[in-house]
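Technical note accompanying the year-one report. For the benefit of new consortium partners, we illustrate the data format agreed upon in the data management plan: each record pairs a sequence with a C-alpha cell string. No post-processing was applied to the example shown here.
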Amino acid sequence: RWSYSYMNGILKKGASIHRHTKQRQKRRRTLIEERERQLRQNPAAGDVPADDDFDLDEIDDDDDESLEGQQQLTHEDLFATPICMRAASLQPKFNSIYNAKKTAEEAQATKKKKKRINPNKTLTSTLWTIASPTFVPAGFCQLITVVAQVSIPLFVWRLLRILEENPAQSVFVAAIPYVI
C-alpha cells in the first residue's frame, strides 16, 4: 500500500488538469504550425490573418474558462482522516497493545526478579508497532529519493572528470557506467 485511497480524487483531478493542459498546448502548436505553413506558401498573407482560426488568444481564453474551476482546490478536494488513522480507532488499539506489552514485561520482570520496569521501552515499542505499517514504506521511498539526489551530482562530477582527463580521446568505454 503505497498511497491512501483518499488521495485518488486529488491525483485524478491533477491528471485531468495535466491532460487538458497538454491538449491545449498541442492544439496551440498545431495552429501555429498551420499558420507558419500558410505564411510560407503565401508570404503576402503575413500582414492579415487568414481567418479567425489563428486567434491564439481566443483559444487560450476559452481554455482558461474551462479550466477555471479546476485549477484550485475546493472543499470537495478536502478529505477526512482515514478511519484507521482516527484517534477513536488508534486509542483503543494503542491501549490494548500497550497493556499487553506492559503485562508481558511485568511477567518477565517478576521471573527475573527485577524491581523496576522501563516504561519508555514499552511506550516506544507500542508506538513502533502502530506506526511501522506506514513508516517503513515511507522510509523506503525516502531512501530511494535521497540516494538519487546524492548520486546524480556525483555521477555528473565523475563524468566531467573523465571528459576533462581525456579531451582528445573517445571516453565512451570509461564514461558509459556513469551515464547509465
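Partners are asked to follow this layout when depositing records. The first helix runs from residue 8 to 41.
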